[in-house]
Design brief:
Order of helices and strands: HHHEEHHHHHHHHHHHHHHHHHHH
Number of strands: 2
Distance between the termini: 88 Å
Shape: globular
Strand order of the largest sheet: 1-2
Radius of gyration: 26 Å
Structural class: mainly alpha
Oligomer: single chain
Strand content: 5-15%
Largest sheet: 2 strands, antiparallel
Helix content: 55-70%
Length: 527
């Protein structure tokens, strides 16, 4: 009996051990292998869900009404949704009508498998998909020439070299520069390359890897979120929402300055503490790699008259575009033309001064490469517009599933105070950014819904755009689905878990200030 009684517990223990270890091992393995679906994958399944909704949700429509408002002392009118006018489209039996979408549709109809093409070709040069897409390609090409000239890279490297020995200016100047990059041309991924250069220097000066992430990537996202002119975020959102592009630049300019100052002060305070007590750094252990590989080599960079002319051209273009929008109501076509002209002038300067060995052919190539970087967000804008088409389009007077959904959402949110509705939009955009970190992609997905919803609940579309840009931009500093964030943390050797322990307080402060701004903008009637 002992031959059976003794081995049995051991066999049972082994079985139990395997039953515990195998699931854990499989779970860990699956977690390591799991990846957040690509934005295009998410859009595809959202489109599929939209198609299913057409089999379940009846179609309906609104009436519109003309409202009178004041702008710059001038009385103007605007057509908006009348939230009390919603009515279902009825069938022959007097029941709410269902209008299901098939897999394929002919005779100019829209089916599920042609939603992408229909979305990409929808609209006109004045907005919606095709206008926004072409705007993005031209802007991307223009800044591709600027990037290829090397002026931006060399200006930052030269700044790093000049501020050594005067570290009190290092953080505020560098933070402001990267914030401007995020505000003016949507700088984000470019921060990765600069972090590689800057991180060893920051640690050499007594700071740490986290400070590097703050002055590079986080600074770009603060500029991105509070921008007055970012062509890849606020401009696209305003265009989709039907708000004059780059309107409200004065208010947003002050907002950018305030958020940038907030980031500078937070970073300087943390940096000063790290210099006093290096061991208090959240990334002290991982920074050991850079401390062990420190170099005394100086940073040399080219910065000649050509570089100064390139920066001057960019500055004058920004001023010129803002003036045109304010004084002459320039829209997407005119703004794209000005930035295209900027790209040509920068290309000529780069060739004449042989910046980075630029030639006429390289100017053309860099324009194409810059435009190519915008193909992905352009596809997202087009496919997301296709979702809107599957739901019946954005015309409130045409019976559609979207109008029914908006009426239902408006019925729920409309019971809340307007200020809370505006704040809820901020929360929604912040959460949604976990799934779609592309600013242009998120604008294309959410603004067609948020803009008419804002009309229904009594929130101005300008405030809805504000809620979008703040919610979309700031959460980029924490969501693990942001490739730029994870790459910047990687080159600075900062673990994401360590980063969360550090950044959550600052993110909470950003969210609180954002909430105050959105609610205050609503109460002040910002249009």
């Amino acid at each position: 009996m002992s031959l059976h009684s003794e081995p049995t517990p051991n066999i049972q223990n082994n079985v139990n051990d395997k039953s515990v270890e195998q699931p854990d091992s499989a779970l860990c393995s699956s977690m390591k292998n799991w990846q957040m679906p690509d934005t295009l994958v998410i859009i595809f399944f959202v489109a599929f869900a939209a198609m299913l909704l057409t089999y379940l949700v009846p179609i309906g429509s609104f009436d519109t009404q003309e409202i009178l408002y004041q702008s710059d002392g001038v009385s103007k009118t605007r057509s908006v949704v009348d939230p009390s006018s919603f009515q279902y489209q009825l069938d022959e039996q007097g029941e709410p009508q269902i209008q299901p979408v098939g897999l394929f549709e002919g005779d100019e109809g829209v089916g599920f498998f042609n939603f992408a093409f229909e979305g990409l070709t929808s609209g006109s040069k004045w907005g919606t998909a095709i206008g926004v897409i072409m705007f993005m390609l031209v802007i991307g090409g223009a800044f591709g020439i600027v990037t290829e000239s090397g002026t931006i890279d060399n200006a930052i490297i030269r700044l790093i070299d000049k501020t050594r020995g005067n570290e009190s200016l290092f953080i505020p100047v560098l933070f402001t520069l990267f914030s401007l990059g995020g505000a003016v041309f949507g700088m984000g991924e470019e921060a990765i390359a600069f972090a590689i250069i800057i991180c060893p220097l920051m640690i050499r000066l007594g700071f740490d890897g986290i400070t590097t992430v703050m002055v590079t990537y986080v600074a770009t996202q603060i500029g991105f979120a509070s921008s007055w002119m970012n062509p890849f975020s606020v401009a696209i959102a305003q265009g989709i929402a039907g708000v004059p592009v780059l309107s409200g630049a004065g208010v947003r300019g002050m907002m950018w300055a305030g958020f940038t100052l907030m980031g500078i002060l937070f970073t300087m305070r943390y940096g000063a503490r790290i210099r006093r007590e290096p061991s208090s750094s959240y990334s002290y252990e991982s920074d050991s790699y850079f401390r062990e590989h420190q170099s005394n080599a100086s940073l040399d960079s080219r910065f000649n008259l050509g570089d100064k002319l390139v920066l001057l051209t960019i500055l004058l273009t920004v001023i010129w575009v803002i003036w045109g929008v304010v004084a002459h109501a320039w829209f997407i076509p005119q703004i794209a033309s000005q930035f295209f002209t900027m790209g040509i002038i920068v290309g000529v300067i780069a060739v004449l001064f042989k910046l980075n060995g630029m030639t006429i052919n390289r100017v053309a190539t860099s324009f194409k490469q810059g435009a190519a970087t915008m193909l992905e967000p352009a596809m997202l804008v087009g496919c997301a517009s296709g979702i809107l088409i599957l739901l019946g389009g954005g015309d409130p007077t045409t019976p559609s599933v979207l109008n029914t959904l908006l009426s239902g959402a408006g019925g729920i949110i409309g019971e809340l105070p307007g200020a809370f509705s505006a704040w809820f939009m901020l929360v929604f955009q912040s959460v949604f950014n976990f799934f779609v970190t592309s600013g242009s992609g998120q604008a294309a997905l959410t603004m067609p819904l948020m803009a008419p919803l804002a009309d229904i609940v009594g929130v101005s579309r300008q405030v809805a755009v504000l809620a979008f840009q703040l919610g979309d931009g700031f959460t980029n500093v924490i969501v693990p689905t942001s490739a730029s964030l994870m790459a910047t943390l990687g080159v600075c050797r900062v673990d994401w878990g360590v980063w969360i322990k550090f950044i959550w307080r600052f993110l909470l402060a950003l969210f609180i200030v954002s909430s105050v701004l959105v609610i205050a903008s609503h109460y002040l009637g910002w249009h």
